[in-house]
Specification:
Elements lengths: L14 H10 L2 H6 L5 E3 L2 E4 L11 E4 L4 E4 L5 E2 L1 H9 L3 H12 L13 H24 L4 H9 L4 H6 L3 E3 L5 H7 L5 H6 L3 E3 L5 E3 L4 E7 L5 E7 L8 E3 L15 H4 L6 E5 L2 H9 L5 E3 L7 H8 L4 E4 L5 H16 L3 E4 L8 H8 L1 H9 L2 E2 H10 L7 H16 L4 H15 L3 H27 L2 H5 L11 H16 L18 H15 L15 H12 L7 H44 L2
């Protein structure tokens, strides 16, 4: 079973408060603020807000206060929905829902009273570090860093607005400066501002670098990027993941870009490109943080923008990065355009060379992502050679055949035909042939899945796989019945989760038994603070399956019988294995005795 890191665990908020919060939050009303829902029978359907889709697969069950997407697999209750939709940690999601419901957040429970305070302290350390780096930039010690940034064309207002700074070429400059403000070395290690050597020595992570503070959409300094001023490596050094910073879920300069009136975000490869664009008036520019674009980045951007323009470098690495980013952004529902930068290696250099107006025209001329991918594909072939022209058209047909509509396939098929100088009808036939092949492959994959029903019954996450499918299905039944009617615990006798074959189902069953005995809710939505995201996704699927309570007594007896017989079988198999091992040891010992003179 997957274990969450301590930094990922939710703060302890009283179970009674969470029960009341879930009870006072109507999930249909909450989801309707983000998704257009249509009632069908006793449930509601809409297009999933967590992935791009045209046919609704997002399902809300009012009676259980749960949602489930049959496309991407996400599920849970009100707290999980807000966590996912607003990209918030557990306590902040609870606080947002509490404010919405008119409830006052309680003090932290005694089991973890310092966790929230610890998070706040790390944010304050980062804020103080950013202020210190910025002060050093304007001091005599930061002359080299200031000269570098000014040499890159950044003006004083830009340096101040982005809070840029400088880390001196000393091992303990920041450690010493923050020690005077009351922070110890452990604080700096936790914030990712210091590093511990093998010998136990602690020193500054950032030295002799210009510093870029990373600020989240709420305005908190959560981390840093540091750049060298020469050709030494690594060129950029970024904060590690910490309790307040995750590079895969935050975007540089989004705190400023989200205020832009533009409906298109400009994605660049680095801090300097983004800052240069802002200085030139393109205030919707952002950059990913020392990593390739992720689903988390795309999802975050889709909350503020409808369109994305990829303004990556024109070299091979930039082209590969753009081609990786296109499907990720489209999956998040963003329309994607790609900037074709010529005459310069990146946006920063282009603006310096040709000016702001030229870059604005370049943005307006950005290529549709399909045309961009076709043009990149074309570069791999010599279209004056018939053999290579055929190979290009076949690969282009496979690319075009993946487009969702016939209109798109026709338009871009014509573009490919024009590039290779063949008749559009010929290319149309090739695209249709590729499409038939794609559909045949998809059908075979579906048939394989249907012919392997056991796989369909397994959790989607490999980390939650069932070792004994027959027992696990019965265990799911007991868990599902307890979620529907906590009073049924009286009919379940002394069975505990220890007997279960699935550690997850056993843990949840014991949790539900305990909550039932204490008069707490046994609805799955109330367990948001106890389960990881993948656990909640799976258990939502378990809870959403039909389960009649009309014959609950008989169902319970049947489930317990299956669980008991499977447990005895596992125990018998273990005993037999131990007996065989003992016999082998006896035979080996006997053989050794006989060999002795």
């Amino acid at each position: 079973m997957p274990h969450r890191r301590e930094s990922d665990r939710p703060l302890r908020i009283s179970e009674q408060f969470l029960d009341e919060l879930v009870a006072r939050t109507d999930l249909v009303d909450l989801v309707s603020e983000y998704v257009r829902l249509t009632k069908k029978g006793n449930s509601y359907w809409g297009c999933c807000p967590f992935h791009s889709e045209k046919t609704p697969s997002f399902h809300v069950l009012p009676d259980q206060q749960l949602y489930k997407c049959f496309g991407c697999g996400k599920g849970g209750g009100a707290i999980n929905f807000i966590k996912e939709q607003e990209n918030l940690p557990f306590p902040d999601a609870v606080a947002l829902l509490a404010k919405r419901a008119g409830m006052e957040m309680p003090e932290l429970g005694p089991s973890n009273p310092s966790a929230r305070a610890r998070r706040d302290k790390l944010l304050e350390i980062n804020r103080q570090a950013a202020r210190t780096f910025h002060q050093w930039l304007w001091a005599s010690e930061g002359e080299r860093g200031l000269a570098y940034l000014q040499g890159r064309g950044l003006g004083r207002a830009t340096l101040i607005n982005f809070g840029l700074g400088f880390a001196p070429d000393r091992w303990d400059a920041l450690i010493g400066a923050l020690r005077e403000k009351g922070y110890d070395k452990r604080d700096l290690l936790d914030a990712g501002l210091a590093v511990s050597s093998k010998g136990g020595r602690i020193y500054d992570r950032f030295r002799n670098r210009v510093m870029f503070p990373i600020i989240d959409v709420a305005g908190n300094v959560i981390g840093f990027g540091g750049r060298v001023m020469d050709d030494s490596m690594p060129k950029y050094l970024n904060s590690p993941d910490t309790p307040v910073y995750n590079k895969s879920r935050n975007v540089f300069a989004l705190n400023r870009a989200k205020k832009s009136k533009a409906d298109r975000v400009i994605l660049t490869e680095g801090y300097m490109d983004t800052i240069s664009l802002h200085q030139a008036g393109f205030d919707s520019a952002v950059a990913s943080l020392g990593t390739s674009l992720t689903d988390g980045h795309a999802k975050l951007l889709s909350k503020y923008f409808k369109e994305a323009i990829l303004a990556y470098d024109g070299d091979g690495a930039g082209v590969k990065a753009a081609q990786r980013a296109i499907p990720i952004l489209e999956k998040a529902g963003l329309k994607v355009q790609v900037l074709n930068i010529t005459g310069a290696k990146d946006p920063d250099e282009f603006i310096k060379t040709y000016g702001r107006d030229a870059f604005a025209r370049l943005l307006d001329q950005s290529e549709n992502q399909v045309d961009y991918r076709l043009s990149q594909l074309q570069k791999n072939y010599d279209l004056t050679n018939d053999g290579q022209r055929i190979a290009f058209l076949q690969e282009a047909a496979r690319l075009v055949s993946a487009l969702p509509s016939a209109v798109e396939r026709d338009i871009y098929g014509r573009h490919a035909a024009q590039a290779a100088q063949v008749e559009p009808d010929v290319m149309k036939q090739e695209v249709e042939r590729a499409l038939r092949g794609r559909l045949r492959k998809a059908k075979k994959q579906q048939e394989r899945r249907e012919l392997a029903p056991a796989n369909l019954l397994q959790p989607q996450s490999r980390g939650l796989r069932y070792e004994n499918l027959r027992s696990a299905r019965a265990e799911e039944g007991l868990v599902r019945l307890l979620m529907r009617d906590p009073g049924l615990v009286q009919s379940m006798g002394d069975i505990t989760g220890e007997t279960f074959s699935s550690p997850l189902l056993g843990r949840v069953f014991d949790l539900l038994r305990r909550r039932s005995s204490e008069g707490l809710s046994t609805q799955l939505a109330s367990l948001a603070g106890e389960l990881s995201e993948e656990e909640m996704n799976h258990l939502t699927q378990v809870a959403a399956q039909p389960e009649s309570t009309a014959r609950s007594e008989q169902s319970i007896r049947d489930y317990i019988s299956i669980i008991g017989s499977e447990a005895r079988f596992r125990g018998g198999a273990q005993r037999e294995e131990l007996l065989l091992a003992a016999q082998r040891r006896f035979q080996e010992k006997k053989a050794n005795m006989e060999e002795k003179p």
